[in-house]
Structure prediction request, 564 residues.
Amino acid sequence: FSVDDGNFQIPEGGQTGGWIKMIGSFDGDLTNTELGVGGKKANPLAESPRQSVFQSPRDVIGPTDLEFREGNTRIKQNFRNIDVKLTASKLKLMKGETSRVSLNVSGLQGIEDEVPLHISCTGSADMQGGNIQNLQISPAQVNGEGQFLQSRALVGNKVGNFNVTATVLFNAGPVVLNNNLVHVERVATKKWGNYWGVKVKTLDGKFKWIYFRDKPTDAVVPCKWIMITDSEVESDGDIIVKGFQPADDPNKPCLLENKTVHVEGSPIQLPNGRWQITITLPNGEKGYINLRSPKKPDLKLCNWIKVSGCKKLNSKTFEVDGYDVTEDPNKPKPPAPVYTPTPTPKPVPAPVTTPVPKVTPCPEGTKRKEKSTIKEFEILSKGSQLSFSIEMNNGGGRAAAAGMAAWLGGIKKLGDVLKGRFLPDDQALGGGIADAALTYVELGEGIISALAKSNLGNSRVSEVSATLSTKLIKVTATCTKFEICEDGVWRNKQTYSEERQLVDYTDTITLQAHNDPRNEWRNVTDPSTGGFDVDRAEKYLMKKLIEKLKKNEEAYGKFKKDCK
Prediction:
């Protein structure tokens, strides 16, 4: 029930007045995070570095749009806000007295998949069907007004009040993936501390991020399948894998298809409405079959079943669509009956067959599930002119880098400095311009003239500030993902576009000798004397200022490349 763009997992639906929980890389600051549902702002509740929680509006019901912003990232996608109302004929019961609760779930028009609903009853009443019920609302159960209507009888078990709640489980959150087969989509990347993240795809086609406490083995590589044998969900929703093993491609032919196997025990319940049954494989070894069923399969030790719709998960575990209870294939067959000729029957007319209606394909060229991710980047270009200045607290003046603008604007001089390397054009990806400037600084080229440095002086310096000013290109990049109907089939597509404008940019870094939590003052002092060193300060501070711009260029390049 969620959309994953690689950085954020956002649910595709929720309940009016309920929580909308988004998982991703947050900065813990709610002031720069916004969420709108149907054009109305959702109420912010809490944010941590890995999740943000909002309250869904109560007056927006049914299919609508969700707009999300975190920093300079914006996402717009489809969203369904479902409303649940409960009414009862009596709210207080005597022992043995009856009442009836009515359920009205609205906003369901146009659903294509089942919607899970959890109902519970507490207090002085027993509810028809049990006090805890988990329903699956199917499209066929929704009326023309987009409503699901049901009622339940209540019987008082003592004198007092009772409470009935109904909750849509759009935001049920991740569940453990034990005994689940997943396809590795991306190379493992280090996330925080010793944790490594891997993007995978489950058998039902959903993308998820899973995490390992140490770098995973070479078995976890793109295009491979793994079976997760042990996992847990942390409080912030992260799925931590504690055990796994390599697995075969489930699309290979299954050896159990239409085979008869022996049941070795009662079914064991797995997450997500699945059951596991221990069997004896045709080779005599113990194995397992997994299947989906709303209730426990009626199987026990010594049953024989014939398997249908089989997929191999690993060497001993198989996913099946169904089974038929059958006889022991090793049981001796009764003797064949004595053949007695029978009269030749008269020809029977062939039954009239009713043609099966064809499934109507999707409308050609139509789009659905459209979602745009918009990000803003400020990057250097070949025409950028950098101005660098430095100032100390010893009364020295402010020195400007007169030669910096001429250097960055001149191809020939840059070629001399970089020994034949030239600046990339404005369309280059990934830090090319900033890399050239960093190389210039690393080679020791003077930015501030010797005369200006002498005016600054080195004595009694305990604070230094450096300022970098230039004009940058502000790029507003948009990556739009959608499904489009082609040849009668829905296909996944994505497009990239960008807008550019020239903006002013100024950034300042200040270091203080007596307030130095990161121990950076040593980078602007002479190692032999411990006194302030203008040359070292010039190089170190200029490098830090340019590295910030380099990160912007690299992020822009990666976003553009991933979308294309």
